[in-house]
From TrEMBL:
Residues 10-73 form the ABM domain. The keyword Oxidoreductase applies. One of its GO terms (molecular function) is monooxygenase activity. It comes from Pseudomonas farsensis. Keywords: Monooxygenase, Oxidoreductase. The lineage of its organism: Bacteria, Pseudomonadati, Pseudomonadota, Gammaproteobacteria, Pseudomonadales. This is Antibiotic biosynthesis monooxygenase.
Length: 126
């Protein structure tokens, strides 16, 4: 997945509430699912799968090149057995959130934080 300078990323976050004994299996299933999604969706720029320390939650973070790229890739979601994944891993709840990136700061070679993506003035709405 390549980086496109000055793009305004569209970020999806999906939080799963699961029994602690299912956390690791769900996290691995989401990693596999994300790898498959990346093969079919050029607009997917980054994915992170995180587990809470209490063992009850898994967070999937998907960063898209833009909301338009996400919309173009959304046909792939229809084919995915999302509900089956939830049942298999006994998810008790799922929370969805989406955000349009205004800025992204990264540490540069000089040690300072630098704006990597977009500006607040370039924001055109979600």
């Amino acid at each position: 997945m390549s980086h496109y300078a000055h793009s305004l990323w569209f970020t999806q976050m999906i939080e799963y509430d699961v029994p602690p004994e299912r956390q690791a299996a769900l996290a691995q299933a989401l990693v596999s699912r994300s790898e498959q999604l990346a093969q079919h969706c050029e607009g997917l720029e980054g994915v992170s799968v995180q587990a809470s320390e209490d063992g009850c939650r898994v967070l999937q973070y998907l960063q898209w090149r833009s909301r338009t790229a996400w919309a173009a890739a959304s046909h792939a979601f229809v084919e995915e057995p999302f509900m089956a994944l939830l049942r298999q891993h006994q998810a008790r709840g799922v929370n969805f959130a989406a955000y349009q990136a205004l800025r992204s700061l990264v540490r540069g070679a000089d040690g300072g934080l630098h704006c990597q993506v977009g500006t607040a003035q370039a924001y055109q709405g979600a």
